[in-house]
């Protein structure tokens, strides 16, 4: 799924084409973070067991950040888009953050992307734009938008 999302233009930390083994290394690292309790992750599976979408929540471990977390690596496989999976995954992560007592969430995404529009629709607030933040597969760079969202108490 990671390779399919990157090939489809998702800016989630990788460039297309991905070198052999890079996706496997990424998922291995995520699994270690989940096992250590540093990352919470949810996935949506297709009827055949294939992953259709995933999202991560990274609670801040520093004492002065115990009230916040970062949303990371929201991905929906290109063949599964248009079914509301991204919205469902975002709501799941936000609900989990709230249950953990996290009152502030942050994330970033490429300016003008489908994800940018999604976060705005879901009530996220733009904090600012960082120019030339992410390299593009075809060369050059693009800006990222940093967003934040306050969560009401449980």
From TrEMBL:
InterPro entries linked: Acyl_CoA_acyltransferase, Bact_Acetyltransf, GNAT_dom
Entry GO MF terms: acyltransferase activity, transferring groups other than amino-acyl groups
Cell division listed as a keyword: no
Entry-linked Pfam families: Acetyltransf_1 (PF00583)
All residue ranges annotated as the N-acetyltransferase domain in the record: 1-152
Record carries keyword ATP-binding: no
Annotated keywords: Acyltransferase, Transferase
Official protein name in the record: GNAT family N-acetyltransferase
Species for this entry: Caulobacter mirabilis
């Amino acid at each position: 799924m990671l390779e399919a999302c990157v090939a489809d233009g998702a800016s989630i930390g990788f460039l297309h084409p991905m070198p052999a083994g890079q996706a496997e290394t990424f998922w291995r690292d995520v699994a270690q973070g989940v096992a250590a309790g540093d990352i919470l992750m949810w996935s949506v599976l297709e009827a055949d067991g294939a992953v259709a979408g995933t999202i991560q929540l990274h609670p801040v471990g520093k004492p002065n950040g115990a009230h916040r977390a970062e949303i990371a690596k929201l991905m929906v496989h290109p063949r599964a888009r248009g079914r509301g999976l991204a919205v469902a995954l975002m709501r799941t992560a936000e609900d989990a953050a709230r249950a953990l007592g996290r009152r502030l969430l942050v994330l970033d995404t490429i300016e003008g992307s489908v994800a940018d529009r999604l976060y705005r629709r879901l009530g996220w607030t733009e904090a600012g734009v960082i120019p030339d933040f992410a390299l593009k597969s075809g060369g050059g760079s693009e800006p990222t938008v940093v967003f934040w969202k306050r969560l009401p108490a449980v």
